[in-house]
Write a structure and sequence with these properties.
The chain is an all-alpha fold. It has one domain. The chain is about 70% helix and about 0% strand.
């Protein structure tokens, strides 16, 4: 089996991973598997020779087609993750303001503040 065929297998596995439905309970596993496959592909990419025959050139075209889809799905996946992280940060800030609404007030000039929580 040629090295291009092995590279194609890793690319197809990566494509399957990013096309998988990502939920809160399986997000960590999907991200770890995607990172593992990306590392393997990056290591293989350094040692790949130029495609010699028509079969290898066809494999390269298929890999390039899959790469476009993979990049789009990865961007979508990580944008969703970033959005969720921003939401969690906002929620944390909102909860903190709810428990202590006068924390950010700069001056206490002439006002009574109840310190009970």
């Amino acid at each position: 089996m040629s090295s291009w065929s092995v590279f194609l297998q890793y690319t197809e596995e990566l494509s399957q991973q990013v096309n998988q439905k990502v939920k809160d309970d399986n997000r960590d596993e999907v991200i770890q598997e995607v990172q593992r496959l990306l590392k393997k592909r990056a290591q293989m990419l350094e040692g790949l020779p130029q495609p010699a025959d028509e079969e290898e050139k066809a494999i390269v075209k298929q890999i390039m087609y899959l790469d476009v889809d993979i990049n789009q799905k990865l961007e979508f996946l990580f944008n969703g993750l970033k959005m969720e992280m921003r939401h969690m940060k906002r929620q944390k800030s909102s909860n903190k303001k709810y428990t202590n609404p006068y924390e950010s007030v700069a001056s206490y000039d002439g006002m009574f503040m109840d310190r009970k929580k």
